[in-house]
Specification:
The protein is of the alpha/beta class. Helix content is about 40%, strand content about 15%. The chain has 2 domains: about 210 residues, NAD(P)-binding Rossmann-like Domain (Rossmann fold); about 190 residues, 3-Layer(aba) Sandwich (Rossmann fold). It contains 16 helices and 15 strands. It has an 8-stranded mixed beta sheet with strand order 3-2-1-4-7-8-9-10, sandwiched between helices. A 5-stranded parallel beta sheet has the order 12-11-13-14-15. It has a two-stranded antiparallel sheet with strand order 5-6. The protein binds ligand SAJ. Ligand SAJ binds next to helix 8.
Length: about 425
Amino acid sequence: MNFKTLCVLGLGYIGLPTASTFATHGLDVIGVDVNPYVVETLRNGGLHLHEPGLRTLVEAAFKSGHLRVSELPAEADAFIIAVPTPFFADRLGEYEGRIYKMADLGAVKAAAQAIVPYLRKGNLVVLESTSPPGTTEKVVAPILERSGLKAGVDFYLAYSPERVLPGQILRELIENARVIGGITPESARAGRELYATFVKGEIVLTDATTAEMVKLMENTYRDVNIAIANEFARLAERLGVDVWEAIALANRHPRVKILSPGPGVGGHCISVDPWFLVEAAPDLTQLIHTARQVNDEQPRFVIQKVRQVLGELNGRHIAALGLAYKADVDDLRESPAIEVIHRLQAEGAQVKAFEPFKPQAQVEGVNAVPTLEEALEDADLILVLVRHTPFVRLQPQEIARTTKARLIVDTVNALDRGHWQAAGFSLFRLGDGKG
Ligand code: SAJ
């Protein structure tokens, strides 16, 4: 095994940085995407997604002469599949009256099929897409075997989850520990040889299904922990307690680390992946299922809070601060902030939203404005939905001069209550039952 050429299928948030990093480490990489817009944009020196440092990395990869992009795969020593695994929008599962979402493996199957004509003896194929347990062995292997070659005998096949945090992808890609699960031990070892090209974190080998499960466990663990934080916030409001204070105090216990409540769980990972475990065994996953429901319902509690502060919402003007799914990123996918805005509008509120990391954002059904001033113009209430650093740094005196609004609902504990009250604002925080 000595991997000199690599074909990466899927040039999204994971595939593109991965392809580029392999290229800058000397492998000849062909990056493949079925979306002609992605391929065209990259060929013309553009970038179809935003991630700190990615532009520099992609430019370096092209400059090295080791990266090219195409709509079709080509022969290579190794293949990496890094395509999305969303859930079906229109197909739901049901177990004892409880509805769950189901994984759509269409893109994984299509990518595996696309490799078949180019697969040769001795090649390595790695699936990186987050997938239900068993996908590598039961879904990907049979498709690749249409080539006439046998998985684990004629070619190596492994699963290796990406664990990088959006906003810190480039650093984490290299530094994080990497789990590689082979359908045979030799396949796992082949995977290690490939990733050792650039991974500085520890590389740990296991079997493919364990590696798939590990990835899902990581994100499910986080989802369940955020759900309990959100439930604590609801409880605190009812019981006259400030949840932010209570969490800070509880976290002084050496073995307690409660996460932060907020307007809900967004993004394309944590709000999706736990469903893969529910789908795998709906009879065994009540806690996981409930946590998903708790987090999905969180926008409703934000509306309730705004209604408490503002009264009737119909015709009232609200400045919504933040559209991204979490702090300091420009990614709007599955964003609870957008869900909150839609719900406010459904109740007749007039919402103007400002997203500092994507001031030109265009979101269906959302009036996104390019400046904070415009959002604040005729607002009756300021609603902070994302804990972006620029919001944490806002100066209350300055804002007091920009807007007539004196009511603030802060869903993410971004603003210091003392400072804002001193400047004449009434600040209400999600989860703060004290005021
Ligand atoms: N959130 C809270 N409270 C918190 C932490 C997060 O409400 O205390 C919300 C965020 O605002 C956001 C959502 O949860 O809406 C998810 O954000 P995140 O930062 O927890 O995670 P992601 O989705 O950006 O990235 C996760 C990471 N997984 C884990 O931390 C276990 C990352 O390492 C994975 O690689 C990524 O999912 C993925 O691709 O699966």
